[in-house]
């Protein structure tokens, strides 16, 4: 590898000296996940096996985002009393030893328990990273709360751990943690992203928590898809889905409050790698496709901040243009699979006022103790403006829309969904529409 890199550098120097300008590489799509857990917090595998899985599945970048920690410093993990299932962790330990050997896997007996010294990111990244093929990006799930409301935020391309900032409300807690990431980004002169994770986890966030979030364009994000089976992504009869929350937030911020756009991301939130099924939080369920010339942490993060990405649970796009008052896309279609392309948006003048409803006691559950009332919203918000059957479509804005985004649903069932009956899908970022001339 060192020889190849040296040769590449030599070629660049020769071309520069000879007066031949090197051409920029073309834009391309890079597949990645920004929400993944390991033995550094509450995942059931060490980070090396997790990284190997993602790389083998064709991912280009990965963020291991453990709770309030980055993979650095000396930490010992107990195999005999782990945070997750002892049986599964023991199985992962046996696989770890078999794959990497006793020289790599440092173990000890401590207080009668078998412990493993966790490898830091700087120690194991060299086993997997390849220029233009695969990279690891530093990250953390900043795990905070307001009273009983969990507030978890995924920091991407961080330099240092960010401690939970707290706040006087859910919205204030979100704002304070966002501000901490922005401050670190400015301190180091490095692009960083932070997204609010699983807003429907315990139904701890509502759309109202995002309406007045203060941020510059390219700093507001939340998970519109999360592959964890326990975070209520589809909502229920009394709560909006995460995707519906996105439409409500976009409509209110853009149509009434004059606030900047919020981008939606798709992630795995993977914890379980040793058992598979709908009740597990498995890898490979949802991801981002980011468009960039270079596969480096800063370039990938900068592209995400520009909104130059789409989300997928299996549908791949061959071409995508979001801008110039239109969305145009072409699907990399699979033979025998049918596609429905819906353009979703909210028109100017739509009813953006909520109506409140009391949650009946009979419908309360252990994960629904945080809100006694919920807001209902007009169907004018996030309505389907155009439907195209096929592998390509164009939506031309009239200027009467606040925003438009594309949602693609295939006829192919997801092979390991977080909810039964889910199909492979994809979602673009919203086109914020200017007034027609």
UniProtKB/TrEMBL annotation:
Organism superkingdom: Bacteria
InterPro entries cross-referenced by the UniProt entry: PHP_domain, Pol/histidinol_Pase-like
Alphabetical list of SUPFAM superfamilies matching this protein: PHP domain-like
Species the sequence originates in: Parahaliea mediterranea
Keyword Signal: yes
Signal sequence region: 1-22
Protein name, as recorded: Histidinol-phosphatase
GO MF term (any one): 5'-3' RNA exonuclease activity
Keyword tags: Signal
């Amino acid at each position: 590898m060192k020889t190849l890199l040296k040769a590449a550098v030599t070629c660049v120097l020769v071309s520069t000296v000879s007066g031949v300008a090197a051409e920029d590489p073309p834009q391309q799509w890079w597949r990645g996940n920004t929400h993944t857990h390991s033995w550094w917090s509450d995942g059931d595998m060490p980070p090396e096996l997790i990284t190997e899985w993602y790389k083998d599945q064709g991912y280009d970048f990965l963020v291991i985002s453990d709770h309030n920690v980055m993979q650095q410093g000396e930490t010992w993990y107990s195999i005999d009393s782990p945070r997750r299932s002892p049986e599964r962790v023991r199985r992962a330990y046996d696989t770890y030893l078999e794959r990497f050997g006793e020289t790599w896997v440092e173990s000890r007996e401590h207080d009668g328990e078998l412990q493993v010294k966790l490898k830091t990111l700087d120690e194991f990244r060299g086993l997997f990273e390849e220029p233009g093929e695969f990279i690891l990006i530093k990250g953390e799930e900043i795990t905070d709360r307001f009273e009983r409301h969990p507030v978890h935020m995924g920091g991407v391309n961080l330099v240092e751990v960010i401690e939970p900032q707290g706040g006087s409300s859910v919205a204030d807690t979100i704002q304070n943690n966002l501000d901490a990431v922005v401050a670190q980004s400015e301190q180091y002169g490095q692009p960083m992203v932070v997204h609010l994770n699983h807003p429907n986890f315990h139904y701890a966030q509502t759309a109202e928590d995002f309406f007045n979030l203060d941020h510059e364009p390219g700093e507001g994000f939340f998970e519109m898809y999360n592959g964890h089976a326990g975070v209520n992504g589809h909502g229920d009869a009394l709560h909006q889905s995460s995707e519906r929350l996105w439409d409500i937030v976009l409509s209110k911020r853009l149509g009434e409050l004059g606030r900047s756009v919020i981008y939606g991301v798709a992630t795995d939130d993977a914890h379980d790698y040793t058992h598979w099924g709908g009740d597990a939080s498995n890898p490979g369920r949802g991801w981002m496709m980011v468009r960039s010339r270079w596969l480096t942490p800063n370039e990938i993060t900068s592209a995400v901040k520009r909104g130059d990405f789409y989300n997928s649970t299996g549908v791949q796009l061959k071409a995508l243009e979001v801008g110039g008052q239109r969305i145009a896309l072409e699907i990399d279609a699979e033979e025998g699979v049918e596609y429905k392309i819906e353009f979703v948006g909210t028109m100017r003048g739509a009813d953006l006022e909520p109506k409140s409803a009391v949650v009946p006691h009979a419908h309360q559950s252990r994960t629904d103790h945080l809100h006694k009332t919920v807001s209902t919203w007009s169907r004018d918000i996030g309505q389907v403006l155009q439907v195209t059957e096929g592998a390509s479509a164009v939506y031309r804005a009239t200027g009467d829309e606040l925003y438009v985004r594309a949602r693609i649903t295939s006829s192919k069932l997801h092979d390991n969904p977080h909810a039964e009956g889910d199909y492979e899908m994809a979602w673009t970022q919203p086109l914020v529409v200017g007034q027609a001339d």
